[in-house]
Inverse folding.
């Protein structure tokens, strides 16, 4: 993510993706060392932020536990 796409990633995509019924999407922000998982619930996205050593969790893939650093620093 860059500053130029921040608004698009956090706002516009939510509206576009909800119309398409995208069940979940991730926003990776290496500058803030944070991954935001947006999950579609009843037509609206609920966001969960994962930073530092917190393992990233997905509602779609319940067995998936990925360390934040593994996504941001492959």
């Amino acid at each position: 993510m860059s500053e130029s796409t921040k608004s698009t990633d956090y706002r516009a995509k939510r509206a576009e993706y909800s119309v398409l019924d995208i069940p979940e999407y991730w926003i990776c922000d290496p500058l803030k060392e944070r991954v935001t998982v947006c999950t579609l619930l009843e037509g609206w996205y609920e966001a969960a932020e994962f930073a530092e050593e917190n393992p990233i969790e997905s509602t779609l893939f319940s067995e998936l536990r990925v360390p934040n650093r593994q996504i941001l620093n492959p």
